Amino acid sequence: MTIPRFPLPDGQPVDGKVTLSGSTYKHLAKVLRAKPGDPVSFYGRDGYEYPSVIENISKKEVICITGQRIKKGEEPDPKITLFQGLLKRDKMDLLIEKAAELGVYKIIPIITERSEVRLSEGKIDPKLRHWRKIAESATSQSRRAFIPLIEPPISFRKVILSLNPVCPNLFLSENTSRGSLKEAIRKLKSSEGIAIMVGPPGGFSSAEVAEAEGKGLTSVSLKGRILRSETAAISVLSIVQYEFGNL
Question: What broad class of enzyme is this (predicted)?
Answer without folding.
Answer: transferase
